[in-house]
Amino acid sequence: MPNAFLLTRQWRDTREGIVLDFWWATEQGACWTQINRQEMVFFILRKDAEKIAKLLAGLRAWRMAEVELKTFLNLPVNALYFKSQRAARDALELLKQANLDFWESDIRPHERYLMERFITAGATIDLVEPVDGSKPILNPRMTPSETRIPLKMVSLDIETSMDAKQLFSIAVWAEHDRKVFMVGEGENSEEHSVIFCATQKACLQAFLDWLHVYDPDILIGWSVVQFDLWVLETLCQKENMTFELGRAKQAAHWRQEDGDGRRYIIIPGRVALDGIELLKAANYRFESYSLQFVSEQLLDKGKLLQGSGRGHDIARLFVEDKLALADYNLRDCELVWEIFEDKKLLHFAVERSQLTGLLLDRIGGSVAAFEYLYLPRLHRKGYVAPNLGELESDVISPGGYVMNSRPGIYDNILVLDFKSLYPSIIRTFLIDPCAFWIAQHEQLPSENTVAGFNGAYFAREGHILPHIIEHLWSARDVAKREKNAPLSHAIKIIMNSFYGVLGSTGCRFFDPRVCSSITLRGHDIIQRSRDWIEQQGYSVIYGDTDSLFVWVENNCVGKTPKNKEQCQKIGDRLARELNQWWQAVLKTEHAIKSHLEIQFETHYLRFLMPTIRGSDLGTKKRYAGVIEHNGERELVFKGLENVRTDWTRLAKDFQEQLYSKVFAGEDYLDFVRETVSDVLAGKRNDDLIYNKRLRRHLHEYEKNVPPQVQAARKYVQLTGKPIRRGDWIAYVITTSGAEPISAQQSPLDYQHYVDKQLMPVADSILHFMEQNMTELVDTQMSLFVH
């Protein structure tokens, strides 16, 4: 009974019923299991059973059965089973025409099969014969497992002509093998790992032959699906070849989204993972996600060819120096491999898949993950899931509580943070869709429920979501003890997504009464925590969803600020005593155990809470401060220009240096004047570039035409090259407006950068010194003007 880890799952109609194909990684190699004679199933009201039986009398291959399930309105249901998706689709159309209700018609059979057995990714498979990936094993028994199987990975990268219509080379980088399949003539080189192929078709075939022999589970790359694999598919079609990328030499299958044109690939028995998508899923953020930028940031090394003319350089090397091109091609594979290793991206994907039931290559999918975990448990409680939109009400669910801030520059701000506030609220107050239905249907007395908000109340027994969160919480504690950072991070993302799912109209369990019981409870907790802290003699200058910013010097005006050790003791005491206070309050008021956990998170030695521009009111979600880490002082920015991708490098550098000087009590006047002088003198031109992404197609901008669109249109007009939605536009502001950096025609408008980039940054902090930048540099600026 080998342990296995799920790689891919597919289903298809056959004459004998629906067939489910699952590919697994095992310690003995790839395993292909096939479950046949399956059925599509959905549910209808039992009171409609007779009417529906007559309605479907003309259809073949279906049956009906009574089941011990009911709807969220407490109405019993029957199950309808169909031998094929086609028959189920025909039945659904008849039900829609007759205006009859049905539920769970959108659950796909391969997902239902696994979820009802509580298999997310790991499984134990009962086999009577050895693993053989060349043919399917029929109908083995499967049970869930926490197993982890080492997965065999290959980094893939291709080089082509600039229009991607001519293949130059295909590079692969694996743990024990590195190769470049190069189109053209030459002597195979072990030093450069090059295998020359006479034609493009021969190159494609050599790559596919190697892939089937090496037999990896995972293919990784940079835009590997959107570019590399799609180009290889296109080139195979051109050469009248089947792109047999899958195991058992099965072809890859593609689908494309209508909205954004994104492509998705299914490779039987293998998974393609894109480094960019996985970094984003793991919550890593970069100014640019180009391989060059990310590898420099993470690995301190980059590509062998760089710059905007790289495409021409690649084409030149293909003609003049194929071995140098091979080195370049292989270096890209190596960079991707090392990024995956450095950030444990495959480990992260594996852990997330095991926790949620999402396939390794599924990016996003919070709603799908929630439903995969929730539905089988809901069925065990005797309910079917509602349809999308059925639980909506007139109640409006607010967002997180954001307190009005007190602007100023402060010594010693302590940040107290509720650990995973929304998950802990769900767990503490037993907030759960099923528990809400149970409380209503069984008309439970108040002592058997926990009150929510907007008329919601939740059964103390029979809830599902609090148990799921408790399991994840325990798993995260174990991961932290074992220093398993990818697992810990994956669990945190999943737990924190549950509120977002319940509060999303795209989730079938969206009910404003349920999700407002989470957010409004959060408001209450933050406000009452603030009141308790201020009763201890400290000031709370700001609060944001799950954090409170505490000023510990408010009653010590004129005295020497507290030192680091004193602040640490205050922070630890406040966190400890506030946790104890909540334990007592919730036991008294609700007779429940508190799972709220506030922790002393950060000590800012100096802290700025700015004002809204042109106002004396404090901002929200925007601040900066100085922390000390390992004996080194570090500036932290939140929501300000320094962390925004749409501000220039000039503004970011200026803000960092100016704030550092002000926080350190250093003179900043000469620095401000020198920076303005350098800009006006043309000494900072390289730092004046804006980078913004096109959110729509160029022709869709009509009334409001922002600078990046103006620059993009000029670029198209001047170069004749196309620009697509999603492209990044690098531009500058000139005396003729916004212009693309690669086709600049006019002189730079330096005054724009002083007024729109330097001045807002300076005045946000100089305001508290009762100064402004205009006064500081007015004389100097007038000299440049005249």
TrEMBL record:
It is an enzyme of class 2 (transferase). The keyword Nucleotidyltransferase applies. Keywords: DNA replication, DNA-binding, DNA-directed DNA polymerase, Nucleotidyltransferase, Transferase. Its EC number is 2.7.7.7. It comes from the Bacteria. Transmembrane segments: none annotated. InterPro entries: DNA-dir_DNA_pol_B, DNA-dir_DNA_pol_B_CS, DNA-dir_DNA_pol_B_exonuc, DNA-dir_DNA_pol_B_multi_dom, DNA/RNA_pol_sf, DNA_pol_B_thumb, DNA_pol_palm_dom_sf, DNA_pol_type-B. SUPFAM superfamilies: DNA/RNA polymerases (SSF56672), Ribonuclease H-like (SSF53098). Residues 101-292 form the DNA-directed DNA polymerase family B exonuclease domain. It catalyses: DNA(n) + a 2'-deoxyribonucleoside 5'-triphosphate = DNA(n+1) + diphosphate. Residues 371-757 form the DNA-directed DNA polymerase family B multifunctional domain. Belongs to the DNA polymerase type-B family. This is DNA polymerase. The gene is polB.
